[in-house]
């Protein structure tokens, strides 16, 4: 069972708004997860940096989930995370996708579920949430 961090609901993030997440990565981190979506069953973005998990090393794996059905995995090989380090990640919600802003890198992930509002956010795994802000 993956340790569950704080869960946020009723965020009300709409296109043009951004969610900024700050936190600390565990010194012996294998992977961590941030989920953004309508609720726990409709995830528009499953963001999973893997230091060493499921056969991936220093890779960010993104996906979407509709109830129990996962989409196709999307991999980013840029990996600006360090074990034991702190990190700030901003998720920008757009009409058709989400822009993920990482230190020195950004990429977009399509809004496959056509969510008009992102209400739900959670973190799991080897990550401690320090602050969450949205605008």
From TrEMBL:
Coiled coil: none annotated. InterPro entries: ConA-like_dom_sf (IPR013320), Galectin-like (IPR044156), Galectin_CRD (IPR001079). GO terms for cellular component: extracellular space. It comes from the Eukaryota. CDD domains: GLECT. SMART domains: Gal-bind_lectin, GLECT. Pfam families: Gal-bind_lectin. Keywords: Lectin. Residues 5-135 form the Galectin domain. SUPFAM superfamilies: Concanavalin A-like lectins/glucanases. One of its GO terms (molecular function) is laminin binding. Gene3D superfamilies: 2.60.120.200. This is Galectin. It comes from Pomatorhinus ruficollis (streak-breasted scimitar babbler). The gene is Leg4.
């Amino acid at each position: 069972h993956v340790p569950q961090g704080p869960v946020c609901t009723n965020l009300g993030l709409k296109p043009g708004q951004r969610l900024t997440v700050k936190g600390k990565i565990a010194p012996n981190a294998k992977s961590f997860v941030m989920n953004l979506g309508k609720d726990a069953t409709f995830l528009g973005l499953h963001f999973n940096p893997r230091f060493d998990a499921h056969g991936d090393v220093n890779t960010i794996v993104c996906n979407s989930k509709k109830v129990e059905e996962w989409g196709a995995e999307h991999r980013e090989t840029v990996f600006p995370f360090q074990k034991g380090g702190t990190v700030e990640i901003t998720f920008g919600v757009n009409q058709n996708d989400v822009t993920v802003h990482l230190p020195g890198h950004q990429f977009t992930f399509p809004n496959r579920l056509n969510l008009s509002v992102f209400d739900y956010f959670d973190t799991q795994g080897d990550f401690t949430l320090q602050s969450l802000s949205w605008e």
